[in-house]
Backbone:
């Protein structure tokens, strides 16, 4: 990182480096770093002992488990189906393809509360889909996973799609001419090239799900210890004007998200380093 | 393995890519498909490989109809212009790929695969590059890996689509020689596509000249170069001077030039074009022979053993290109700006139908 930084400074032929890097730093500071530092500032009002007590409260810990568990599962589901959708959108021509392509973005555009209400109506025990199942979907972790899958879908599709589009059919033809069948070609030639994009999509969907509030609160039922997600706990504390308590939990969420992003980036970096110089 | 191509037709939308192509290729031959872009040569190659479907016709390998068999069962090796290496695999893994994906029953053991890959890598002089990734190799090295990968499955037919098209001139020439050598060793029936006539003339046993989805001429390099059977082939294979004149009384008349023509054309009285290769233009200081035309030297390019001379005809406003040996050039003591006399030593007349240059 530092070497390229200095390289750029000395060798660049593009004008405006100082101006644009200055602007970028300022922008990121005001928009991201400053609000985040307020989190820490607010939490500092707590003693270390109180901080630990708040974040390790059994109700809070249950919410971590629920939030991370459902977000992870939702991201995994999205990786699977998102890749298939991206594949279909890139590889086949059919009537309504453009429409389908547009539909993928809908979870981005839809206010999350609207999504939450719609999903709850469908999956509630007396809803269209909910009454088809012998067990409850809404107001259980399954409902939360469905809501998180819904809002995370575009991330995987939109990261895998361009990679598939740019994938040269020659590699596939080479594989076929060497005697590989379609399945082996997919597993050995296509899929490895998709892994970085899939990882990125997974990370985005996962981190988005961690912070999701609007679409989940309706379908979750919000029973303490059972279906209460961490963002909801933060909201509850805020409503009780317990700002230090809310920020304390927020910090846990923030640091863990950051760690996950970091780990994913390291994995990607290791994967890429191998074959791209 | 011999290949028989019977009346193949292929359309892409409204574009007739291949129009009734028939061709016989003997076992062990090295064939060049030569033609300008859009002539259908790549389509034909891809159809032989099974990477493209055909609309009509049939392909026979050793007399057996394989038209309906798909690419992976045809046992061919295919080399792409842009290498198409698997970039997430090392050189070793790339070459081993075709053996590793075989069903368990026919798959060689790990050791056999490794031995085979190393033999092939030493054949393409890349034995020290086994652990590299394609992105760490030069273009010429990548294409050699691609060749080794294609040869690893012991194909009965090797198909190469503009294999040297993306490489620079020097590497191209090296690889060309090397391909010829490989072919002499392995004797696998090979077909390569090229738009470079020099490459085709240099490497192939036989050349198939294609134009607009049809085969113009098939023959040995000497054949097609010395006896082109159409104006297109004449023009496409090497440089050519045109004498756009008229047939009259069994002679071609063009400006102050009159020269003999084939007896088969003697009866005609029509527009005709004489084709003359630059090395078939004779240059003299005096008009000592019949049919000599005055011309002025406007440029001399004297690098190498062959001297290229550009001339401007004095009887009509047209330019000519001539090639003479350095010895002749020195004995004639030609200078730029001088007037000389020229005459085509050999001239082939075609009556244009709808063909025009």
Residues:
């Amino acid at each position: 990182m530092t070497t390229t930084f200095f390289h750029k400074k000395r060798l660049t032929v593009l004008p405006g480096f100082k101006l644009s890097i200055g602007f970028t730093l300022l922008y990121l500071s005001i928009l991201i770093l400053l609000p985040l530092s307020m989190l820490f500032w607010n939490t500092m009002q707590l003693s270390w002992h109180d901080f630990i007590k708040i974040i390790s409260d059994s109700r809070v810990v249950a919410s971590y488990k629920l939030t991370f568990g459902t977000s992870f599962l939702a991201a995994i589901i999205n990786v699977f189906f998102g890749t298939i959708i991206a594949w279909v959108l890139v590889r086949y021509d059919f009537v309504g393809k453009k429409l389908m392509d547009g539909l993928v973005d809908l979870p981005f555009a839809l206010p999350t509360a609207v999504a939450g209400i719609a999903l709850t109506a469908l999956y509630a025990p007396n809803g269209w889909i909910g009454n088809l199942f012998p067990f409850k979907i809404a107001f259980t972790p399954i409902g939360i996973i469905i809501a998180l899958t819904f809002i995370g879908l575009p991330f995987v599709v939109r990261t895998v799609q361009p990679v598939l589009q740019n994938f040269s059919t020659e590699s596939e033809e080479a594989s076929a001419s060497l005697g590989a069948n379609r399945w082996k070609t997919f597993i050995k030639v296509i899929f490895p090239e998709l892994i970085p994009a899939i990882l990125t999509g997974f990370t985005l969907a996962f981190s988005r799900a961690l912070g999701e509030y609007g679409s989940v609160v309706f379908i979750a039922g919000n029973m303490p210890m059972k279906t209460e997600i961490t963002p909801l706990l933060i909201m509850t504390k805020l409503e009780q004007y317990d700002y230090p308590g809310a920020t304390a939990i927020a910090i846990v969420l923030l640091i863990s998200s950051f760690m996950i992003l970091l780990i994913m980036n390291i994995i990607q970096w290791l994967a890429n380093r191998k074959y791209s110089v | 393995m011999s290949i028989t191509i019977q009346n193949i037709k292929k359309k892409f939308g409204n574009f007739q890519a291949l129009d009734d192509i028939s061709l016989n290729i003997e076992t062990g031959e090295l064939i060049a498909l030569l033609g300008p872009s859009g002539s259908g040569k790549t389509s034909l190659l891809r159809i032989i490989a099974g990477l493209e479907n055909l609309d009509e016709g049939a392909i026979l390998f050793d007399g057996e109809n394989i038209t309906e068999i798909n690419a992976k069962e045809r046992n061919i090796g295919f080399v792409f212009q842009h290498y198409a290496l698997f970039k997430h695999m090392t050189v070793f893994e790339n070459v081993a790929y075709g053996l590793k994906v075989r069903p368990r029953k026919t798959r060689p053991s790990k050791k056999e695969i490794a031995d085979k890959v190393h033999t092939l890598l030493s054949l393409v002089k890349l034995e020290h590059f086994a652990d590299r990734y394609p992105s760490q190799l030069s273009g010429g090295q990548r294409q050699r890996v691609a060749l080794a990968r294609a040869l690893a499955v012991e194909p009965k037919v090797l198909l190469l689509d503009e294999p040297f098209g993306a490489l620079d001139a020097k590497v191209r020439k090296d690889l060309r020689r090397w391909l010829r050598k490989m072919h002499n060793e392995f004797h696998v029936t090979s077909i390569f596509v090229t738009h470079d006539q020099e490459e085709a003339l240099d490497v192939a046993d036989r050349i198939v000249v294609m134009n607009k989805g049809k085969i113009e001429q098939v023959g040995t390099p000497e054949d097609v170069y010395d006896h082109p059977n159409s104006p297109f082939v004449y023009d496409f294979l090497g440089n050519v001077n045109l004498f756009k004149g008229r047939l009259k009384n069994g002679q071609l008349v063009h400006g102050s030039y009159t020269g003999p023509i084939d007896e088969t054309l003697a009866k005609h009285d029509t527009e005709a074009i004489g084709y003359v290769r630059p090395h078939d233009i004779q240059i003299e200081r005096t008009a000592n022979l019949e049919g000599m035309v005055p011309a002025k030297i406007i440029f001399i390019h004297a690098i190498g053993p062959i001297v290229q001379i550009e001339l401007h005809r004095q009887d009509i406003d047209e330019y000519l290109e001539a090639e003479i040996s350095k010895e002749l050039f020195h004995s004639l003591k030609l200078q730029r700006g001088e007037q000389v006399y020229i005459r085509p030593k050999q001239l082939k007349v075609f009556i244009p139908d709808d063909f025009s240059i």
